[in-house]
Amino acid sequence: MGPEDLPKVARWLGRQIRKLRLLIREVKSELNWNELEKEIDDTQKTIDREIKHLDPQTDISREVNLVSEEIEASTREIDQTLNK
After folding, report:
1. 29 vs 69, which has greater pLDDT?
2. Which domain holds residue 12?
3. Confidence of residue 53 (pLDDT cuts 50, 70, 90)
4. Contact residues for 9 (Cβ-Cβ < 8 A; gap 6+)
């Protein structure tokens, strides 16, 4: 292949790339690719929201505070009973 063939090869390559792009567009259309991408995005957003609600540190802190309040209340009751 010499320099004189380079324009022919470039045109051929350009046609092949266009054909490939058309083929990809057709496949995406047939597979409802856009709908699939939207569904995946929606699912990811739902998962992200649920993960935020499942923060174990918040749940543990809440439980520790409840137990601490119960201990303080019991301690006050004991003090009141002993001081009577």
Report:
1. 69
2. 1-52
3. confident
4. 1
